[in-house]
Design goal:
Elements: H1 31-39, H2 43-56, H3 60-70, H4 80-90
Helix pairs in contact: 1-2
């Protein structure tokens, strides 16, 4: 009995936009605006969530900074962290 060695891969196509930090409507780095656009929820809900997380345990600041470093800004191909690592490697 022969077995077929080919595998089938399935690709899930999501209608969501790419996660990007948006320039329009931003206050600091565009993280909340990008997240609200990506999740298709009101911007106020995301900002309130950041405030609540900040007050309840302070986790909002590290999360915001991580997203600011790791999520590319709209119109850019790379994130700030990618640019910093490329600069360090080139040195």
């Amino acid at each position: 009995m022969e077995t077929d060695s080919t595998t089938t891969s399935t690709t899930v196509h999501d209608d969501r936009p790419e996660l990007r930090r948006l320039r329009e409507g931003k206050i600091l780095g565009g993280v909340a605006t990008g997240l609200s656009h990506y999740l298709d929820i009101d911007l106020s809900v995301v900002r309130i969530a950041f405030v609540v997380l900040g007050v309840m345990g302070g986790i909002a600041v590290p999360l915001y900074v991580a997203a600011w470093l790791l999520v590319p800004e709209e119109g850019e191909d790379t994130a700030i962290a990618d640019d910093l690592l490329a600069h360090i490697r080139a040195s």
